[in-house]
Amino acid sequence: MSSVLSLARPDILELQPYQHAPWEPSPERMHANEMPWRAQGDNTGAGLNRYPEPQPRALVERMARLYEVPASRVLVGRGSDEAIDLLVRAFCRAGADGVVICPPTFGFYKVAARIQGASVTEVPLLEDGFGLDVPGVIDAGRRSKIVFLCSPNNPTGNLLDEAGLIEVCRALAGRALVCVDEAYLEFSGQPSLASRLDELPNLVILRTLSKAYALAGARCGTLIASEEIVELLKRIIPPYAIPSSTVEEVLRLTEAPQRAIATARIRTILAERVRMQARLAVMPAVEQVFGSDANFLLVRCRDASRVLEAGKSVGLLVRDFSRAPRLEGCLRISVGTPEQNERLLAAMERT
Ligand code: PMP
In a mutational test of the pocket of ligand 1, which residue from 63, 66, 81, 158 has the highest number of ligand atoms less than 8 Å from its CB? Predict the structure, then answer.
């Protein structure tokens, strides 16, 4: 067994996976207890009366092309949230194993670990600029199964230094998985770490269509990892996880014309990010605007509740982190349309 698979839960390695009905689209299906007719008004391509393909080939291939990796290294799930959950369940024994997170960061890593009964070790991002504490993460990672790193990080917005991520992967080879969540990478202009998978077998990358591709409601996330990890996770993903309506919509909405529109919209978001940063930086209500490589800005306010109210008064909701450790007074503002941004900035200027 490879060193990376030896990190998995032994009972999962031995698990006899659920035997779903074989996916055979051509013979007529009388093997899956489905209805032979579509529901009235069902105009989908495949028919919602049929179970979907478990890992839909066309979708896997589309994601592989989009993220420029081999299809054998791709697992698609219901958002990257599902991939996080699967990783924790496959690698952490309840009450025995744990994960490392680097707060302030995306909240679901901790929740997924807790649901599984795994322990959570926190190695905070550095005081100055929210960079990675590389020696601290390596040290904690040696006593854990998975290290979750988010780059660009939510909610701080900054990329983590690539050399540091690689150093962590190398130091933890055979000891822990390093999961780099690239949910916001498209807004950073940086390449994915996925191209380094050959040299870093314990690396797992997460990508999502929920952000740059405007498909959060479709629930489609992609895990990119060594074939062994992908095959292991396929054993525990719930049967028929991806709805056929999602498959059809995602295939339609990630064609070349839509990708070109997504690219143009990312440019607009980046231009708006720069414009908002400049305006926020000189506002009396604002103490600090953090640099961002994502589609949101973290802003420390002199009086966060007044700024929240100002947003609400013009019909806009921003995310309140003001009571979170290390984020006192901070709000996270997702970059919106130019009109929304202007409305928010104007309201903030009046506070
Ligand atoms: N990772 C990060 C860093 C996120 O911010 C989010 C959503 N806010 C996710 C993963 C989950 O995304 P999804 O499940 O929609 O792919």
Answer: 81
Q: Which atom of ligand 1 is nearest to the CA of 105?
A: 3
Q: Which of 120, 127, 122 is nearest to 156 (CA)?
A: 127
Q: What angle is formed at CA 189 by the lines to CA 187 and CA 193, rounded to 5 degrees?
A: 100
Q: Of 132, 70, 66, give the one whose Cα is nearest residue 103.
A: 132
Amino acid of residue 267: R
Quote the tokens at residue 300. Answer: 């420390």
345 C-alpha to ligand 1 centroid (Å): 26
| Residue 246 Cβ contacting ligand 1 at under 6 Å | no
Q: Are 300 and 287 in contact (CB under 8 A)?
A: yes
Per-residue tokens: 45:
């391509």
Task: State the amino acid at position 197 in one-letter form.
Answer: L
Comparing CA positions, the residue from 84, 138, 139 lying closest to residue 116 is 84
**How many CA atoms are closer than 13 Å to the CA of 174, on its beta-carbon side?**
4
Q: What are phi and psi of 154, to 5 degrees?
A: -100, 125
* pLDDT tens digits, 251-297: 999 999 999 999 999 999 999 999 999 999 999 999 999 999 999 99
Query: At residue 167, what is the residue type?
Result: E
Task: Check if the beta carbon of residue 170 is closer than 8 Å to that of residue 200.
Answer: yes
Q: For 207-233, how does the pLDDT look when each residue is reduced to its tens digit (9 = 90+)?
A: 999 999 999 999 999 999 999 999 999
Q: Tell me which amino acid residue 218 is.
A: A
Q: What is d(CA 180, CA 160) in angstroms, rounded to the nearest whole number?
A: 10
